[in-house]
## 1
Amino acid sequence: MNAPVVAHDRKGPAPHARPGTTAAGAAPSSGAAHASLPMAQAINAGLRAAMTRDESVILMGEDIGPLGGVFRVTDGLQRDFGADRVRDTPLAESGIVGTAIGMALAGYRPVVEIQFDGFIFPAFNQITTQLAKLTYRSQGDVRVPVVIRVPYGGDIGAIEHHSESPEALFAHTAGLRVVTPSTSADAFTMIQQAIASPDPVLFFEPKARYWSRGEIPATVDLTPDGVVAGLSRARTVQHGTDVTLAGYGPTVATLTKAAAAAAEDGISAEVLDLRSISPLDFDAVIESVRRTGRLVVAHEAAEYYGPGAELAARVAEACFYDLEAPVLRVGGFHTPYPANRHEHDHLPNLDRILDAIDRSLDY
Amino acid sequence: MRKEFRLPDPGEGLTDADVVTWLVAVGDTVTVNQPVVEIETAKSLVELPSPWDGTVAALLVAEGANVQVGDPILAVEVADDAATGDAGSALVGGEAAGGAGEGESGGSVLVGYGSRQADPGRRRLRPRGVDAEGPATSSPAAVVPLAPAPQPAASAPQPADAAPAYDPDDPRVRAKPPVRKLARDLGIDLTALRGSGPGGIITRGDVLAYSNAAKPDTYAGYPGDEPWLTGGVVSPDGRRTRVPVRSVRRRTAEAMVSSAFTAPHVTVFATVDVTRTMELLARLKTDREFKDIHLTPLLFAMKALLIAVRRHPEINASWDDETQEIVYKHYINLGVAASTPRGLVVPNIKDAHRISLKELAQGLADLTAAARANKTTPADMSDGTITVTNVGVFGIDTGTPILNPGEAAILAFGAIRQMPWVVDGQVVPRHVTQLALSMDHRLVDGELGSRVLGDVARIMEDPAQAMVWS
Amino acid sequence: MTETETLQLLTPAGERIAPNPAVAHPATPEQIAAYAAELTLSDLRAAYRNMVRTRAFDREATSLQRQGELGLWVPSLGQEAAQVGSALAIPAADMIYPSYREHGVAEVRGLDLREIIPVFRGTRHGGWDPKAHNFHLYTFVIGAHTLHAVGHAMGLQQDRRRGIVDTADAVVVYFGDGATSQGDANEALVFASSAEAPVLFFLQNNHWAISVPTERQSRFPLANRADGFGIPHLRVDGNDVVACYAATRYALDHIAAGHGPFYIEAETYRMGAHTTSDDPTRYRTREEEAHWLARDPIARLRALLEADGVEPEFFAGVEAEGRELGASVRAFTRANTAGDFTEVFDHVYASPNAQVERERAAWDAYLSRGESR
């Protein structure tokens, strides 16, 4: 934006003098570019890089300042970028998202945190009626480049509302991008691409993987095409010939384990990390299923009306003559998320996935 | 000009209203927006204003009547030069695309659910029938690459899910689930069919035709004959069965054609007294070292050939027509033609020149077992340098074998029978066989081939000769 | 219905009066009078013209809806003073977030009023570029935009901190009495107060949220809510264009001085229905409507102007201009059509989206299947 402060003849206090361009000095070097980081720190590194690169990036959320976020994802950022750019908000999710929309309309790139998946619902109105629709409503005159970070998913022994997977509700809303990394590398890359995107992005962070380590890349493609591709494409985790296993977020690690277990029984499974829930990378899945003839989709969200249903319908249409078995889904049940002592069996665990593979191969 | 005011939808989806009170009469002058009638809807009592300046020509509906949205209720005689205003001014909203000025206003472009137009021509269903089973372009919705993305597959018009061209090597069967089930219920192996759908898709009709064709009551063979083919389509009169050429049969046919019609084949023959080989065979059968080894005369023919090739390495070669080179190989991968339930396969024993008789026997046993179990791999069959074919096992004396493609010679080993032979001037029964060597005359002249065959014959006639030649 | 004291500088009969000190608080009567005095006769004539044009536009649009040319219309009838008076006090650089009824504010901002038509005709959403006149699109989810305005104001604060000088001083958000009950409208006050954001909350209390009277939203004056959030407020007579102007000027100077948000409640009356789908005869009386007709904002300004010697030709001229505007709106509306169906796939996202492109192609394929026979 513009040049630094000059004399100002309005009534009222003089604005704070601040350097207008590069960030204040204390941002630690990202020399750890190849480091193996837990996902939470990979996201932190990604936020840091985005904030260093672009002064209009502002973080807002509950407890993200001195506390650094309940998962420490924003640890150290307020210290390094200041309380103007890393803001603790009042406890009101609708207000957080609504004011973020306003800041975006004023030219900023807000990245807000909803503290837990189960608490996103007060903001559901702002997200679906406003954030998703402002660009469309204005026929492109208005952009709202807001990123909403949401820790999601279960398997962490939490109480009610802290283990939800509401991504389908947002994927079903046109105008939103919905993405979720499964590795530190993708977390580091995709958070920066989400911030660079001109679209509103729901960035679902699998909290069960916050502490899983992985290498982060040295560079990130932030060209417009690179951002679109990075936020839209699936990734082949491993190739196989007998069945395609597709999932995202916390489930990718489970699918990889299932593939290894299946290999012991002579079954070669291909594993796809979808990475983007909206848009779904149908091309990648269809290409895979044309080779394997079988698809098992797994996600923590309920199977009933879940993202797997969309994938199954689309694959059934495009691969009708190639399918050796119907598309099978492994997901949560049509119940509220259970008490955590039961969550293991509610989630798509290794046994349930292997069972689905067996059923698929029985056809 | 007479214009008709049609009942608009006065409130978000209402379908009809009652006319309560006319506020004007025929002949009255009306100005635009002047209230002309009071109507009552399900929601409220509403006054409707005139869309035009003019004179009331007719009240088309009586007070108290119920009218549907879109029905004309009032006719107004309007001056012909009714101004259009500045309809065309530069504003967003697409006014340029619409009707000129006022045009058919006052009811023809009703919003919401009003204005019952005549039904626009309804889309007709496509006639079904001939191409019923084909997928056509049924679901281009399914896969269209992202148009502006940097990915290579970016040319949008080709739906990526269009059925690929028929690939006869593709072992996968492509069929809809109900067709698969039908086939399973009828006990039909779908791999035996060739589908008539696009891309080789097997249709329900294909399965039924195949199934009907296999019914025995139309079989035209001898009375009491049962169908003995496992695949194929029997003609309706039961007199012919058509079997698609697939996999092994097709590969064999291709190899034979490529070999027979590329390499000029010449075959030389030798009739050999192999009594001493048979004696050696009998002796080895009692030898402890060969206790668990299956020994056959073929083994000795193979060993004799290996020794002969070592003496005449020029025959262990192939003709590379593309590069106009002869490729001499310094190893012998000895192929053995094997007859299997699926057809002819020619696996080879790798580096047969370096192994002992016992190892050669083991190799032959393994190769035979694999072939019988249909487990011969492409690797087993590749890179052969010379081949033996045992026609003798069928009781045949000899033949003119066709070269295995890529090789320059092939030995046919015939049946061994007791025949009268002259030994030391006497006619005595001896074990006699015939050997035939076909050669690629581009690189193997008659002399070379004859010498090689002669050496094989010599060794089999006197195995001790191997000691001299090794 | 209760009538409570509001700041008034012009009686319904069109006579100037001095501000009541108790009601002018936190401003002083002198401050209010000084702001009021900024309005010259020329300014008042301009305000009159704006109000009459707004009403003419509104009347025409209402008629057009009754003729089936618009699916819906949201009348501003009766609220011209609150809208025009306040809007005249807002600098052009300040972003305004309207609800969906502020046609008078649009008029003052300089929008071509016909740009408001398409959304009600159903040919498109939105209708204008917010940046063209610093007038945001209409938001039909009640109260949702109050948070956007606060966020925008927080953005202005951040601009200031970064030393960006050519930034605006304030953001103004318009909303109604019904909206004050919405969670978002209250969260907006929380955030505005917490951040001391430079935002003016302008409440037009027109007494009715469709058929629900204000008393159902609150048992005490709505402006008092601002106190609970620590935000100063003024209650003005929303049918008094001079008072609305003065109060808004006061509020914006307060904000520009860095004192944080401000809240104005303008008491006015929704003389028309909530929308053309509404039937007020079902829930309010003719007596009440007559009571407010006597307080008509345009009539009282006309009375003032006439008393100040403005010539009849002026009024006739303004009426004529109103009729011309009506004709222009009529012609525009009747010619306004949507484009080809494929335009629904545009602008769903600001960057290329695989799913939208896939569906656009599917639509094209569907069309070509129809053509091939």
## 2
Amino acid sequence: MSDRSLPFTRRKFLASSTLCAAASIAMPSILRAQEAGVKLGILHPVSGALSYSGTQGRLGATLAIEEINAAGGIKGLGKIDPMLGDALSTPEGGTAEVEKMNSAGVAAIIGGYASAVCLAVSQAAARYDLPYVVDVGVADAIVTRGLKNTFRFGPGFGVIAKTALDNLAEINNHAGKPAKTVMIVHEDSLFGSGLAKLLNTQLPQHGFEILETIPHPTPTRDFNNVVLKIKAQNPDLVIPANYYNEYVLLARTMQQQRVKPKGIYSVLGGAASSYKFVKEFPDAAKYIMDCNHWFDPGSPKALALKKKIEDKGQFYTYEVYMNYSCVMLVADALARAGAADRAKLAAALESSTFSGHVMPYGPTKFVNGQNQGAAPVNTQVLDNDIKVVLPANFAQAKPVFPIPA
Amino acid sequence: MRGLLPIAVVVAALAAVPLVVQSNTTLNFLVVTLLIALAGQGWNILGGYGGQYSFGHAAFFGTGAYVTAILQVRYGVNAWLAFGAGIVIGAAVGGIIGALTFRAGLRGSYFALVSLAFAEVLRIVASVAPITGAGVGTLVKLDLRVEALQFQSRAAFFWVVLALVAISLLVAQRLERSRFGTWLIAVRENEDAAKALGVNATQVKLCAMMISAAITAAAGCFYTQYFLFVDSGIAFGTRMSIEALLTPIIGGAGTVFGPLLGALVVQAVGEGAKLVAGDAPGLSLIVYGCILILVIAFAPRGLIGLVETSRRRVARPAKREAAHG
Amino acid sequence: MFSPVILITAILNGLLTGAVYALVALGLTLIYGVLHIINFAHGALLSAALFAAFFAFHLLGLDPYLAALLLAPIFFGLGYAIQRLIIGPASHGDDRNMLLVTLGLSVVIENALLYAFRADTRTIDLPYAFQTIDLGFTFLPIPRLIGFCVVFAVALVLWAIMRRTDVGKAIRAVAKEKLGAQLAGIEVSHVYAVTFGLGTACVAIAACLLIPTFYVNPSVGEAFVLIAFTIVVLGGMGSVPGALVGGLVIGVVESLSGLFLGESLGQIGIFLIFIAVLLVRPTGLFGARA
């Protein structure tokens, strides 16, 4: 739905040429650049388990490319020619796409979304020194393997957990420390388990007592037992970290069973900062807090993009604006590099101080591939809308804590 | 297929491919195809020759993958040793599952389902056990040296997996020729009759299961070395179980080259479907599924079966002529 | 470790969930018992039925419980057609081919749903979806209670069909002895198709019961398939009371093992039971001795 703006014939040509050319040797990317603008690989899991997020990510990236091309393309290099790839929500799918994109001579690859896919893609791209910009994947391992080609625009686990807990402590202290006991409900694959591990070490350091940590699979059909345990132990805070569907089920079940903790504080909560959730279940969503990826609410560009997306009938989710920002980042780096050359691009990314993105990160600064300014922000569902409550310089409202009875 | 000549020819032809083809896209495609062919050949030993349809071969694939990864990452074991250990432990797991199920006399659909259940149990355990890294999975460090069984060039990986496939082809071929193979096929055709003739069916099936498990485990070990990341879904998920049974059935179950042919066809169809369907979500898989159904409808004994049937049809009129002088 | 209140609530939750599992399994056990195939497409059909129920609500304004009356016959027809026109002919009567054809079907159906409706999760919001009955120590959601009762009603209807009608007798005959039934003049392919249709109709009703408290997306059915298989094996192939009892048992087992082992590891309870039953008593609780 999102990529109908791109000519079908060109996509087909790209795909068939890479496959049929069994003995093709990839042409130096410089020659390609001068002929047909700049090729960029846009890789997301658009089919398989993660297809919703993948499609949203692709949407954000292609919108950015359209905007850049409408303004005449990249300075000195011409228009961006996107090569869309489907990672099939698996590492093998991602790797196969990297090969195709490399053969087609892309200057860089953007995307990945899921940590497992990002890990495989970054390694595959590293073989060709192909710059790879991670959109969302939060596993710390993505940038700690010493791969020179990998750049992560958004924050990783470590930063997210630390920010979440610092903010939690601040909110709690400010309200007079009403919360002491905590229960964590997390999904049991890479992102949920990784986060839970960090929370388990750091929460006690902030003076919180963890009553129980409950893992659950994705998908989980029923949360009645989980809510039963929550009800029985009555924690002050419930901390969920999971994907959209499970988050919604959990929240609805808690509402159904009249479980009302002093606060629901999500960390990378699947639905907690989702407009879709707020729209469809306003009562269950009220006062829920999240520490998650979020756009800069004061940025006119971000708001313009929001309107564009909503006019298309889609929800403005983090995959959209993070990918949008990544494409903008790469375009800026390409302009500064002056050529669609991979080594020059990598160098330009490393020295990048880009602030034309829509995230509350400040100018980019990459150290060992990680953007230092990247951090999540705290949001809360207030007045049927999602408002940023921390950090103070981006805040739109004050946090409401504990949840009013 | 008579003798070792066909195997030698096929393997030699494949080995020459990286010398001609430079495109990494194609090499990657072929490596993955051979990996699946290897897993499928494992299944073929038990399912094709033995007639025991396992729906949970991922149990062995995952065992091989995880053992190789964990030994390297947590215990610093050399990659080649870890690879070997993966195969051995995979075979052992096959032995355990086989012992439990065959001694209980489970056959047919029951066997299929219980194999699925075992794979699921392993998946769940792997997703919570600390040793596997639980949900986070196990990441093997990128270390492009021969000692670490990792290579800069895709061609090198290709030759490694080709060697494994060649071994599996030999195993199948030897099996076909051996007395053990005869017993196994007898069990497939009619287990009760075979027992009546003195074949120790349980023993035979168990043996076949262990060989089958070892081969599929090898595919798992290779996966770890090639992709450097394993988690419970990748290792023990139903996807691998389905690929392992799909390829021999499409290529021709109970034949030496069935899984290899099947893997090539299935993967090619998958790629072709993606070309035809473009990148609309799900469309390529729809094409894939339809083709699967069509193949079953019109070539139920697999592609090799199709070839043999048509060969017989051509031979028959000639025989009739000869008989009538 | 856990107070009796929690245990009782967990058991009640398990029974309510188990009832819906039972309904999904009912369809599967019929198909399995008669056609002797593992119907891989069952989960995808459940997903399709959920979408149907969703659109019945949004486009026709039909409450899911009413939509069941509409969807059951439609899905019966769909199942009949699938078996008669696709599975039957494609598999040439071979059990193993049927397996693969249903596998192919599940891929096609699930991805057709993905292509047509994308992966967005959809839910419907019913005024009574959040209403509960207050038992003092817990709140029982009303939609689940309704679901529980409906499942028993459906099981009863199915049992009546199987025991009292000619179609049911034909189905049982084919299940027991296909060749003999054929010789007695029963058209086997028609019976197969009817069985498949009945199984699919059950799935459609299950979807209508699920949708008030659940969500809809193309891969949702997958989650139910393995559990349904377990119930079929536990209850005994082809046994309607078996599927019912099996479903309730599995529901309770899942609930309790989730309570004691955690939601992730707790899933293991189901499969361990599955394996144990297969090793010790493969015909299941109510199955006929093979």
